[in-house]
Amino acid sequence: MINLVDILDESARAHPDKVAVRFKGRSFTYACVKDRVDRLAGALASRGVEKGDHIAVISPNSSTCIELVFACARLGAVCEQYNIRLSALNTARLLAQSEAEIVFFAPAAYAAMCECLGEVGRPLQVVLLEQGAFCDDAVLFEDMIAEAEPRLKTADVAASDDAVMLYTSGTTGLPRGVLLSHGALLTRIEIDAREQRFVHDDVLLCVLPLFHVTSVCVYVTLFVGGELVIAESRKAPDIVADIERYGITRTGLVPFIMRGLVDYVEESAGAVDLGGLRYIVYGGEPVSPVLLKRCRRYLGCGLMQGYGMTETASAIAMLTPEQHGDDRLLSTVGKAVGGMELKVVDESGSPCPNGTPGEVAVRTKTLMTGYYRDDERTAEVVRDGWYLTGDIGFLDDEGYLSVIDRKSNMIISGGENVYPIEVADCIRNMGDAVLDVAVVGIPDEHWGESLAAFVVRAEDSPLKAADVVAHCARELGGYKKPSKVLFVDDLARNASGKIPKTHMEDLKRQLLKQQRD
Question: Where is the AMP-dependent synthetase/ligase domain (predicted)?
Fold first, then answer.
């Protein structure tokens, strides 16, 4: 296989009548999905899309998002997938940088962006995925493919040719486009099929956004001939209902969704049956050992933690279900995934001894081609074939990786290096009273910088700021305790579990205002 669409073609040949995708009450067999992809490729070709061209998709999860990726691959074009949680203005700014001439919009996304499309600076061909938004020149997706001649010929691509462009989370500014090649994605699919133990009878519940790199699991499911169910809700009762209704065997979640799921299952007092669920793969944010133990107890399935990033097409290290049974490993992100080389380096690029923190670096065939139109930043993070993740961590003697914090998050308090994520993890380990936490550095006249903790506590919890400070001082030492603790209702994590920088800045301003008042 050289082209990403080859995985669909092969599965359609092997089991054409098997259900491949379910979405909004509709089911699509492999043969049906292939036919829709071929017609979509024909429609795009008739509108001038050729090898190397870009198209853009701005939509929440839907079956059409998957069809668009494969149709672009058929033509050798690149499918750009946009985060629908970005502001309309930022999305327009990204489109302005893009080469895409055709944009596929969900109706709500188009309605939200109508007034900003002038910022793009060029005319766009608009395709609406469903009825529901008004545009004089728009084409409806289903009409477009119904009228199209199927494109059966697959473009001649090299493994290094780009297939997909995903955007980073943009927690520190305008997101960067990450280009992933056919070869990188096909290598990733083969790795994940093996490492994450996919089998032919798997039924995957797709909860996380398809515009994030977690979408790789969708292609793995179709590669092994499994069934994909696209969830319409991330609420725990709806996830449970989908698991029971469709016989879901695996899903991918971020920890704050896991927390809601385990709370719901525990409160059901045995009324919920998740018996067919084999695995939950999670990642995207730190998770407390307390939550993991609750999940193992109440969810009754294997847990896999994946640590990775968009630039590496997903996980570079994993903690397996068996390793979750060892309490001492729950603070790690596991060992290097097969096909990945990991090392921890100091500022000069030399490997750090085991147990010594440094920057996590990885060498892998799943690495991005580069950042879109940003050779300078690409050269900063990829050196001699190694991708510098920007994360600070250390390896132990057995090869388990512990991630301490982002390199850019390190603060210096009284001459001591402190990583906020270490303090946040300490606060999470206080138990069920802490639902979520973020720790940041703030200016301090005496120490230069000190720590502030923003804590989401359980309803009716008696937890006080002094309790948090005392716990950190006891567990980590006085210089790592937060000088300020602010209880908040929510941390506004995005779909990948990260907290937008703008929200953190708002919280810091709120805290500093309280100090002044």
Answer: 8-372
